[in-house]
């Protein structure tokens, strides 16, 4: 932005005004005209310090507070701007305006330049004080000026004041700068106006369809306003376009599918990602896949995924989950095997429940002895004591094989 601003200032401040023109500017002396041409030559060679010295020397030779002094000061201001001494450039240009000798058109241009210099010098309040009145007198300005004022207010964290200016800048331009859209979007976020942000992001995706950041932002914004189905649709479209290919992206997408009750899509996505090594073969990822298949009521697939997850985990909790699925499927042998592995691995938050389920599984197999042993262990845990005692009481009744 600053480089562009320097170029604007350079061309505006060094516009030819040394002889009478359409703005009816007073003519300057041939002597001064020649001296200013010499400084222009130095500027063209980027000999800014030499040009500055010559202009300061000229200030002592021009008399009074007339037009010639204003021209020299304006040229000096342009040198300071080119040297990136923006505050000094602004102070100098303000002296030009204070002389009140410039023709109307040139004066308005100088005021505009002063506002731009204040922006470059990060003196945002001063920029607003200069540019807003200028805008009132120039109802059809370049859209850039509205954008400058919006930036100034944004820098001062006066977001609500900034918003109409940046919207006006965008509306007045056929192809607005992307940075203007980004400022507009940032203002919506600062004002917690997520619905407007979503609408703007939809437009940004249409204008810049290959920019991943806007797809991500739109999905996040939809989540912010609790439109989760739209959020997952946008995120999935981005994934299909090849944007969201990282492990983090894929897992977030799967999580969203699960949240909107689309477990089959989540499971399919995760399985493909695991098969193609787009996500790591970790216990956690396989467990997530198992959870998705379970929600989708694809129990055989859930079991396979959980078996892999269990084999990759040092703790027994996954074998415990696997055993519970086998219980639901009435696959008692596999349930017994899983619960025993869970207990052997250890690290269970509620081992009592595992002993209880193991006892129930042995009971279904009519292995009364092992069932009793499991229930005796289960009653050692307070949460499971009552249920374990009930089973032991039932087992104490005469049964075949006891």
Summarize the structure.
With 402 residues, the chain is mainly alpha-helical. The chain is 74% helix and 0% strand.
Give the number of helices.
22
* Envelope shape: rod-shaped
Q: Quickly give the structural class.
A: mainly alpha
Radius of gyration: 38 Å
CATH architecture of one domain: Alpha Horseshoe
Question: Which key terms come to mind for this protein?
Answer:
0% strand; 402 residues; Serine Threonine Protein Phosphatase 5, Tetratricopeptide repeat; 74% helix; mainly alpha
Can you describe this structure?
This protein has 402 residues and is an all-alpha fold. It contains 22 helices and no strands. The protein has a domain of 141 residues: Serine Threonine Protein Phosphatase 5, Tetratricopeptide repeat (Alpha Horseshoe), CATH 1.25.40. The relative contact order is 0.04.
Question: How are the elements arranged and paired?
Answer:
Layout: H1 2-13, H2 30-44, H3 48-59, H4 67-82, H5 86-99, H6 104-120, H7 124-137, H8 143-155, H9 159-171, H10 178-190, H11 194-207, H12 212-224, H13 228-240, H14 247-259, H15 263-275, H16 283-295, H17 299-311, H18 317-328, H19 332-345, H20 351-364, H21 368-378, H22 382-396
Helix pairs in contact: 1-4, 1-6, 2-3, 3-4, 4-5, 5-6, 6-7, 7-8, 8-9, 9-10, 10-11, 11-12, 12-13, 13-14, 14-15, 15-16, 16-17, 17-18, 18-19, 19-20, 20-21, 20-22, 21-22
